[in-house]
Write a structure and sequence with these properties.
The protein has 160 residues and is mainly beta. The protein has 2 domains: 86 residues, Chitinase A, domain 3 (Roll), CATH 3.10.50.40; 48 residues, Thrombin, subunit H. The protein has 2 helices and 9 strands, in the order E-E-E-H-E-E-E-E-E-E-H. The strands form 2 sheets. Strands 1, 2, 3, 4 and 9 form a 5-stranded antiparallel sheet that branches. The radius of gyration is 19 Å and the shape is elongated.
């Protein structure tokens, strides 16, 4: 079976940036299972895996536009530290969910002063060119429940 819309795909992967630094890997965590075409992985990787079969090794270089998007400096914002009531030690790297007019947004703290916390609403990998090394371990038909839920159930997927 080939990787196609609504197929369950199980992969081993290593993700690196353009400097060759490992950003993420399935090594040690077990394979990743996803529902192809459901937006479970970045668009560029889905495109690179389309039509491949189990056993295939795929190298894919993904531009930011087909990954986590470009960085937008206007998504950085300075907010009064008092808005973080109940959080004693705010440090760079911490993440919080912020409610906006467009819905919830995950923000990352990038700087903290005595009175101001600078947060960034960009995805941490926004603007990063992604380089994947992937081995496709399995391709199978999705169950009706997986299609209804929009994600894979069981090993490497979502557990209910």
């Amino acid at each position: 079976m080939k990787v196609a819309q609504n197929a369950v795909v199980v992969i081993d992967y290593t993700l690196k940036d353009n400097a060759g630094e490992v950003i993420d890997s399935s090594e040690g965590a077990g394979p990743l299972a996803y529902l192809h075409g459901a937006g479970n992985i970045v668009e560029g990787l889905e495109e690179a895996l389309e039509g491949k079969e189990a056993g295939a090794d795929v190298q894919a270089s993904i531009e930011p536009a087909k990954a986590y998007g470009e960085r937008h400096e206007d998504m950085k914002q300075e907010v009064p530290k008092e808005l973080f009531g109940g959080v004693e030690n705010i440090e760079a790297g911490m993440q919080f969910q912020s409610e906006t007019d467009q819905g919830p947004v995950l923000v990352t703290v990038v700087e903290v002063t005595d009175e101001i916390v600078t947060v960034d609403g960009n995805h941490p990998l926004a603007g990063v060119h992604l380089n994947f090394d992937v081995t496709i371990r399995e391709v199978r038909e999705a169950t009706a429940e997986e299609l209804e839920h929009g994600h894979v159930h069981g090993e490497g997927g979502h557990q209910h």
